[in-house]
């Protein structure tokens, strides 16, 4: 979660939220947030009827003031409390249960009363998110996490990748230099080439030396893309030099594109 967003809101707490389908939303804590300020206006835990497709991910940033709130709830109930969330075992128990009075429920006792009081705000994620409540879900979440880094692309040997490079699934990189802010789409291939800053290589495109073997001493022994060159989908560029700010929509071989 972005802590800068938490400080910018100036509230007591910020919760990570995500949008889900209306069919599954009632399995979680649903909330309504101000679309401009991101303030939580209404919060309810596992409602019987649909409230909103924005749900609580269970990740929070609080200021130390949260401990005062917990203390107030404790004194109101005249109990010594433990702040807790429902365990996985409890979530899967089908029988009705009553929590002991010594517990404070984070969702119902803390978050719900804070809604609409300019105390609680949201930070919406667009990344993957899943609950882990069964052993099988841990495998699924592990796969989702690793997919952020290993999307079936193969990198190496002899590959240099600079900052802010985006590499799609199925990409193959061999003996190449990829400079800052390059975008390489799915299933593209780059071999024995230098790809300049802010360039883009389309899906199923190939940027390479002839037969994939570069002649490092020859003028056109490798392929070089200048800054902000766009190679469109399925275009093949072999042993060529492309000067900056060019768009290639046809394949070229042993060319210098000025």
UniProtKB/TrEMBL annotation:
Gene Ontology molecular functions: nucleotidyltransferase activity
A UniProt-annotated Pfam family: GMPPB_C
Record's keyword annotation contains Ribosomal protein: no
Annotated organism of origin: Musa troglodytarum
Listed PANTHER family: SUGAR-1-PHOSPHATE GUANYL TRANSFERASE
Family: Belongs to the transferase hexapeptide repeat family.
Coiled coil: none
Entry keywords, A to Z: Transferase
Domain Mannose-1-phosphate guanyltransferase C-terminal positions: 153-257
InterPro entries in the cross-refs: GMPPB_C (IPR056729), Mannose-1P_guanyltransferase (IPR050486), NTP_transferase_dom (IPR005835), Nucleotide-diphossugar_trans (IPR029044)
Protein name, UniProt field: Nucleotidyl transferase
Organism domain of life: Eukaryota
Domain Nucleotidyl transferase: 5-70
């Amino acid at each position: 979660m972005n802590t800068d967003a938490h400080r910018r809101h100036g509230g007591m707490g910020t919760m990570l939220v995500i949008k889900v389908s209306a069919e599954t939303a009632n399995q979680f804590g649903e909330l309504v947030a101000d679309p401009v300020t991101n303030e939580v206006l209404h919060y309810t835990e596992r409602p019987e009827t649909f409230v909103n497709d924005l749900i609580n991910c269970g990740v929070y940033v609080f200021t130390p003031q949260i401990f005062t709130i917990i203390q107030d709830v404790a004194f109101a109930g005249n109990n010594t409390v433990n702040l807790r969330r429902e365990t996985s075992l409890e979530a899967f128990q089908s029988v009705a249960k009553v929590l002991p009075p010594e517990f404070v429920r984070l969702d119902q006792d803390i978050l719900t009363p804070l809604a609409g009081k300019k105390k609680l705000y949201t930070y919406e994620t667009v990344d993957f998110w899943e609950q882990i409540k069964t052993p099988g879900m841990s495998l699924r979440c592990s796969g989702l996490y690793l997919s952020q880094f290993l999307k079936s692309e193969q990198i190496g040997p002899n590959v240099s990748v600079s900052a802010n490079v985006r590499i799609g699934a199925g990409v193959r990189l061999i003996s190449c230099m990829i400079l800052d802010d390059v975008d390489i789409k799915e299933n593209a291939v780059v071999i024995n080439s230098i790809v300049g800053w802010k360039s883009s290589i389309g899906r199923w495109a190939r940027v390479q030396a002839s037969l994939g073997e570069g002649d490092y001493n020859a003028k056109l022994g490798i392929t070089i893309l200048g800054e902000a060159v766009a190679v469109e989908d399925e275009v093949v560029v072999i042993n060529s030099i492309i000067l900056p700010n060019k768009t290639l929509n046809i394949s070229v071989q042993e060319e210098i594109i000025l």
